[in-house]
Design brief:
Blueprint lengths: L1 E5 L2 E5 L5 H7 L23 E6 L2 E6 L10 E3 L3 H14 L7 H10 L20 H10 L5 E3 L6 E3 L14 H5 L8 E3 L2 E4 L4 E7 L6 E4 H11 L3 H5 L8
Parallel strand pairs: 1-5
Antiparallel strand pairs: 1-2, 3-4, 3-5, 6-7, 8-9, 9-10, 10-11
Helix pairs in contact: 2-3
Length: about 240
């Protein structure tokens, strides 16, 4: 454990833990969109900017990528920090104008929606990469990825076609901060519209309700090699 100062108060944190998580663990809120405690840090949205003083040098940096270190001083709410966050939010806002969460955060940061050519073709995705990292690091399916560069950058399945690697688990839906990834269960089919993916659902042998994609079951069975799970998946959680 190390000692550090955040907004003039002394706190402790595990050495090397990112500053954003150290602040959150101590009840200090810092806005963020591309960070999740169970995923690698990305620093893409840049809303978690803070000022760090170390060795007499002051640096404006993303708190999700900066490691906690002994004796550093962190400021989370200076005029410079607030201005930088507002400017970043004004770049993000046109990409997800219909997202309640983005709208609320924009109001909180004092950001206004500025005219942008990209806003005309915006689809709600802010390129935060949470879905990509969750699919890779938590699920292990690697069914979506970044494509192109600059203003044309987007997140798609390989070759922008339906990916058989997608198991329909819905992890990407749950981590998406704007709600632009949707999942719909249609009887014995599950549809993830954004990824052009339609999956068959497995039905419970007791109640006959469809409750999990068969691709997800096959993925778990292949990953674990545990034949006993096959019987376990015959029954839904409610009947189990």
């Amino acid at each position: 454990m190390i000692n550090l100062t955040i907004n003039g108060k002394q706190y402790t944190a595990p050495k090397g833990q990112n500053l954003l998580q150290a602040a959150l663990d101590n009840g200090i809120e810092i806005p963020h969109l591309c960070y999740h405690e169970n995923l690698s840090s990305y620093g893409g949205c840049r809303l978690c900017l803070v000022e760090v003083t170390k060795g007499g040098k002051v640096e404006l940096t993303t708190s999700c990528t900066y490691p906690a270190d002994q004796g550093i001083q962190v400021e989370t709410n200076t005029p410079k920090v607030r201005k930088a966050r507002r400017l970043m939010m004004e770049l993000i806002l046109p990409m997800a104008l219909n997202s309640p969460k983005i709208q609320a955060l924009a109001r909180e940061l004092g950001a206004e929606c500025l005219p942008s050519p990209s806003s005309k073709k915006a689809d709600g995705c802010i390129k935060c990469g949470l879905c990509v990292r969750a699919c890779e690091e938590l699920v292990g399916a690697n069914s979506i990825t970044f494509s192109s560069k600059g203003s044309e950058r987007k997140i798609v399945p390989p070759f922008e076609e339906e990916s058989e690697k997608c198991i329909g688990c819905g992890t990407c839906v749950h981590v998406c901060p704007t709600g632009c990834i949707t999942m719909e269960d249609l009887g014995r089919k599950r549809k993830l519209k954004r990824w052009n993916r339609v999956l068959n659902m497995k039905t419970c042998t007791k109640c006959s309700n469809a409750y999990i994609p068969t691709a997800q079951v096959d993925f778990y069975l292949n990953r674990t090699g545990d034949a006993a799970l096959e019987d376990w998946f015959k029954v839904c959680p409610d009947c189990r």
